Amino acid sequence: MNAVAVAHTPNPDHPDNPDWDSGTAELGHLLRPGQLDLSHKVILYLEDITVSFDGFRALDKLSLTIDAGELRCIIGPNGAGKTTMMDVITGKTRPDEGTVFFGQTIDLTRLGEPEIAHIGIGRKFQKPTIFENHTVFENLELAMKTDKRVWRSLCALLDPAAGDRIAETLQLIRLAAHADRLAGLLSHGQKQWLEIGMLLMQEPKLLLLDEPVAGMTDEETERTGELFLSLAGKHSLVVVEHDMAFVKQLGGKVSVLHEGSLLAEGSLEEVQADQRVIEVYLGR
Amino acid sequence: MMPARTPFIVRLGRSFDARSWQMAGLFAACALIAVPFMHLALPPDHPLHLSTYFITLTGKILCYAIVAVAMDLIWGYGGILSLGHGLFFALGGYAFGMYLMRQIGRDGSYQSDLPDFMVFLDWQELPWFWAGSDSFLWVALLVLVVPALIAFVFGYFAFRSRIKGVYFSIITQALTYAAMLLFFRNETGFGGNNGFTDFKRILGYPITAPETRVVLFALSALALIGTLLLARYLVTSKFGRVLTAIRDAESRVMFIGYHPLWYKLFVWTLSAMLCAIAGALYVPQVGIINPSEMSVANSIEIAIWVAVGGRGTLIGPVLGAFLVNLAKSWFTVSFPEYWLFFLGTLFIVATLYLPQGVVGLWLRLRRREPPPAAAATEAKGARA
Prior knowledge:
Chain A is α/β, with parallel strands linked by helices.
C-alpha cells in the first residue's frame, strides 16, 4: 500500500472533528459583508461539484480544499476537468450540484465574475489574455484594485500612490523598460508575465493560474517559479500545470484530477508513485 | 501628475490639446460668423454669397456628423456594431417634430388646433402622448429621455444576455425595422407614412427665414463641437480605456472586476442620446420627418460613414459623414441610378483596403514621408 492521501475532505466546522476549534479561530468574531473569513485556515472549499455539458460530466462530485497561504498544484490528463474547475470557482460556469465557499462565509455560486474578482480571486487564463491595444502600463492600471464602477472610471485620475504601485509591479514582472509599449508587441513569455502582473495589481487573496509557464523559456519558467514561491504565504495559489519540472520546483501539495474527480493528493513523489495515477497517465 | 481634485470642466477642456482647440475655434468662427455673414449680408449675386441650398445641405451633414461620432463611440471604441442607430435619430426628430407640428397652430389646411393628419383621421383630441407637446422645454426633455429610455431598456436586456457581434447587429436592425412599421401606421399617432411636414414656426420665428436657418446651422455646428469634446473626454478617460479593453478582451475585463454590462450600457445610451439631439436639429432644417428615416438602409449608411472616415478616431467619422454625403448629393443629381452601387463599392473598398478609413490612409501617407524619428512620435500621437 502506497502512502497516498486519498481524496477526503473532513468538514472543519463539524463538532465531531477534534480540531474544529483549534488554532487561532476566534469564537464570536464579526465579519463585514464581503470580508473573507479565514478563521479555519481554509480559503477555498469545493464540495461534491458536478458540472455536465450535454450529458458529459466535466466534473463529477469533485471535492477539494485549499488552505490559506498554500501553493497547490493541480495536474491531470487533458479533459480531467481542470479548466472547468477554474470556471466554477470564478463564476463563469454554475455547478449543477455542490457548493463552493470562499473562506467560511462567501458562497461563490451566488456571485458573478466581476464580484468574485472583487472579493479577491484572480484568474490567469491558459492563453495569455491581455489588452493588446493598451500599453503595458495601462494594462496594469486597469487591473488595479479600486472602485470599478462606471462613474468612478469616468472621473478617475491616477494618484501618485497608484503610480508607485504600478511601478513596483513593473519591476517585479521585469517589464519596467516596456511600460509604454503596446502589450500586443510583447513576446509570449512577457505576455504571460504581464497577465500575472495584472493579477497581482488586483491584490487577490487567491490566485488561480492556468498553465502559467506554457510557452516560456526555461529561464523564464524558473523565474516564474521563484515569483510564485515568494507569493505563497501572503496569497494562496492554485496552479494548473503539465510541466512536471515546474511542479517539482514549486514543491507544494499536488492534487491529481481524473475524469472530473479527485484521484489522489499528496506530495509530487507520493502521487507519482501512486499506481492509479500511473495508470491514468500511461494509458489504460 | 495632476492633483487629485481638478474641476471637471477643466479636465473636459484639457481633453482637447492646443491644436484641437485652435481647430475647434476656427470651425466655430466659420460656422458662427463667416457663414451667417456670407449668407445674410452678402447680396445673392455676390461671388462669395452662400445659398440657402448650401446652408441646408451643410447643416444637415453637421447633424449626420454628430450621429457618426455617436456611432463611432459604440462601434469604434466599444466594438458594438449597431445597425439600428437611425431609430434614435428618428425618435429625436419625431419628438421635436411634435413641437413643430403644434407650432403650426391654426395655419394648417384645416384651420384646426389639431395637426392636419389628425383632422384627416377624424380625431377629436390629441392622443395622451402629445400632452405638453406645445412646450419647447417639455419636448426638449422628450428628445433626450425617450430615446435614452428605449436604448437603456433594449441595451440592458441585450447586454445582460451577452448578445454580441453580428447577432447584436441583426437585433438592432430588427428593432429599427419594427419601429418603422409601427410609425407607418396611422393609428400610431405620428402621421403615418407622411410623417410630419409643412412646419411654419419654431419658438414663434418663421422656420424658413434665412435668420432662423442660420441659427439652426450654428447650433448644429456647436452641437458637433460639444459632441467631439465629450467623446474626446470619454475616450481619453479611464472609462475609455475600459471600453476599448471590453472591445478587445471582454472576459479579461470581467475577471479583473469590471461589469461590462454597465460600461456598454452607459456608452450605448449616451450614443442614442447624441443621435436624438442630432435628429432634433435635423428636422427643422430639412422640414420633414417620416418613417423612412427608420429604414434599415439609413442605419447601415451611418456605419458606412464611420467606416469610410476611420473608426476608432474621432475626426474620421466627421470626415466620413461629409465625404459620403457630399458625394451622395452630387451623385443623386448627376447619376441617380448609380448611387447605391457606388455606396456599396465604397463600403467594400473601405473594409478591404482602408481598415482605418481615410484618416488611417492619411496617417500612413504622412508616416512614410517624415524621417523615422518624427514618424515614431507621429505614430504615438495617432494612438492617443
